[in-house]
């Protein structure tokens, strides 16, 4: 990241845009709202694809000949895991950064809209070829399964658009630091910059993979492709993407949740240390998805398990900080009993309720992640639907409920409206519906995975085999959970439409917590991202240098393409 200064133009723009909306310049909130709109559309269509998947797998529905289960699977994954999470994170982080830094730089707006256009066009292109049946690659687009080359071009445009948004964030971040020498960046902006740093690190892997390897292969310019290099490059991106969502989510836990409950941030320095550990240690964790892959020595797998487990530390730090924040708030209100502070929390506030349920879900989700990353235990659940259940706990529950909770203040903040008591009650109901649906679906997936039921499979009857017959009940429960979740999606969209267009006009704040103790503030070197990026690159080199070199020089003949039905 280079130091980019645009202070004079920045100030001129702020003066010209004095008519602020929700406390941030009009140009900024329009960009955020545009990103949120695409995220909401992706949620609806991705949810429909997921609902149909559950009906097909459980045997309740037979699809027409013009669309396959694997097209639905790919659409569900791409729209929810990649499109929804990316657009929502950008809209949310841009709005929050504008709020705490006094607006986005003009060049940030230019990069943001250009990135938005490329991401939108890329999403439409990729979705078209998924629905046409030319991209049945199970979301992870594992080679040698091959899609239409324009599907990959659509994904490449999406990634390039994300990278342009990263550049835009760095411009505003560095412009603020240039104008405020000797000041520590506000904690929310620190989180936002960390998320975009991770996006750059992740996107470099997928860009090399898709542009340098997959597109030439998909067009037929080269006859074969190395699946091991492909899986390795993909999971360096895929695992980092998971923690991009998580880092985006916990930014709301650390920064906004204290304000909502009437307290203060427990520890600014603890939060920043947790962020730095996630950035430095994250990318090598992708190898735990390849514990059973050939071509990796036992010694390398042991190293990668250790590197993956480093991510546990910021998770435990976050759990401690959240409980400490809530307890301190209760004590400040006069509570003296051991657990009396629990009753003082604003359980009737949908913004808090969605976040606390997301935090509860993170406990089993984290425990499942430890199992998945453990060399021996992973072999019990690897490639079973247990892993899908884990993904629905982490992304589908912890991340999505946090995003929903954020939207309950973010949308009215951007549209100049307020959350009514009726909408608040509906939002609490939506959180309960979503949590119950995920509990049913994810619980059934975990149990079925322990019985050996595979993931990414349309039919699991195995011609009536006795072993597979025990899976049927859990498949039915998964479909029932999907129905409940789709009801939650419809209710959520209704709430969003109300908050955007019909709720009463008024002022809704973007909740930014204050520190308990100014002496706890981090030293200025924490803002030296050159240090953390360098350490991250060293960590990546240690993890990926040897295996990628071995794959590249191992004279693997490669594989021709395979097309999924």
From TrEMBL:
All residue ranges annotated as the Cytochrome oxidase subunit I profile domain in the record: 30-565
Keyword Electron transport belongs to the record: yes
InterPro entries on file: Cyt_c_oxase-like_su1_dom, Cyt_c_oxase-like_su1_sf, Cyt_C_Oxase_1
TM regions (residue ranges): 33-55, 67-96, 108-130, 150-173, 185-215, 235-257, 269-287, 302-324, 352-371, 391-411, 432-451, 471-497, 529-549
Swiss-Prot/TrEMBL keywords: Electron transport, Membrane, Respiratory chain, Transmembrane, Transmembrane helix, Transport
Key word RNA-binding present: no
Protein name: Cbb3-type cytochrome c oxidase subunit I
Lineage: Bacteria, Bacillati, Bacillota, Bacilli, Bacillales
